[in-house]
Amino acid sequence: MIVAFSVSPLGVGEDVGEYVADAVRVVRESGLPNRTDAMFTSVEGEWDEVMDVVKRAVAAVEARAGRVSLVLKADIRAGVTDGLTSKVETVERYLAGDEQGS
């Protein structure tokens, strides 16, 4: 499964990068495949391990901020691995003009 999530502290002002870095650090230290962009961090693995990482990432932000916002989107698909890479590669093939995507 792939989970894309965003965790942000509330009530700490506009500059939240330091708090978000705490969450991303948890994800990167998990050893699971992951990617971070301007809006979300995506992490790939089995249900329990991914949800544990999300829970720990939220806890890392919550340790410094009394209120936390979590947005989460999941792609639950049995038997798929390396989806973080393969999904993007498929789109890139279409963009390159290979209309079949293969």
TrEMBL record:
Domain Thiamine-binding protein intervals: 3-92
Gene3D superfamilies (UniProt xref): 3.30.70.930
InterPro entries: MTH1187/YkoF-like (IPR029756), Thiamine_BP (IPR002767), UPF0045_domain (IPR051614)
Family: Belongs to the UPF0045 family.
Entries under NCBIfam families matching the protein: MTH1187 family thiamine-binding protein (TIGR00106)
Name assigned to this protein: MTH1187 family thiamine-binding protein
